[in-house]
Amino acid sequence: MPDYDAILFDNDGVLVEPPARDTLREAARSAFSAVGVGDANEAHVEDVMHGVTPELLRDVCAAYDLDESAFWEARDRHASRAQREEFRDGERDRYDDVAALADLDHDFGIVSSNQHATIEFILSFFEWEPLFDTYYGRERAVESIRRKKPEPHYLERALADLGTDSALFVGDSESDVEAARRAGLDSAFVRRDHSEGVELSVEPTYEVRDLWDVVEIATGE
């Protein structure tokens, strides 16, 4: 079994519970309202909630003659604010098995497709700053959509920060597994309750139930 220098983690669904769809939906509606669209088509609200592509964003903004950069800044700002409120209100929490990482002496990093500001908040809220040596979320800019997973951009930046190319990437989606492949990394797919029925078209190096399983992989036990 490989001896990894570092372990990188996706955030939502791996370290913390995923955001509620209703939270993201209301945040998207608020973003439309913030740029003067009070009656956005519900299909367009769904389009910008999650998994947005540059092409989809362009089409949605064209439907309302919106500036893409201004709308995307509003979308990310409202999404990040709504997610912070989830944590503060106790509606969303970390996973208990994050405690397993205390048994490892690897360098740790976070690479998320969520907003960088949201990741910063989570690190502070759970007092995780000493645990993670580097972390990346998306910048609040349209260009960040092209850089998110499955593109390896942020993974490669995290590896550069840690000074290694020997790392395991732990995620809960196909885009995580594919991003690891593109970056030349092994991957561990965490099959939690929300990903129980997910079928992958790309094969992860490992499939695990939780972060305790990741510890076993990292220690060779």
CATH architecture heading of the largest domain: 3-Layer(aba) Sandwich
CATH class of the largest domain: Alpha Beta
Number of helices: 9
What is the CATH third-level topology name of the largest domain? Answer: Rossmann fold
Largest sheet: 6 strands, parallel
Strand order of the largest sheet: 3-2-1-4-5-6
- Fraction of helical residues: 40-55%
Percent strand equals: 5-15%
| Count of discrete domains | 2
Q: Tell the overall outline.
A: globular
Rg calculated over all Cα atoms: 18 Å
Order of helices and strands: EHHHHEHEHHEHEEH
Number of strands: 6
- The average pLDDT value, as a whole number, equals 96
Structural class: alpha/beta
**Termini separation (Å)?**
9 Å
Q: Would you identify the regions where 5 or more consecutive residues have pLDDT less than 50? A: none
CATH homology superfamily of the largest domain: HAD superfamily/HAD-like
Family: Belongs to the HAD-like hydrolase superfamily.
Keywords: Hydrolase
Enzyme class: hydrolase
GO molecular function, one term: hydrolase activity
Question: Can you describe this structure?
Answer:
By secondary structure, the protein is of the alpha/beta class. It folds into two domains: 6-17 and 93-219, Rossmann fold (3-Layer(aba) Sandwich); 21-88. Helix content is 43%, strand content 14%. A six-stranded parallel beta sheet has the order 3-2-1-4-5-6, sandwiched between helices. Strand 2 (107-115), helix 5 and strand 3 form a beta-alpha-beta unit. Helix 1 (21-34) packs across helix 4 (68-88) and helix 4 (68-88) packs parallel to helix 5 (116-125).
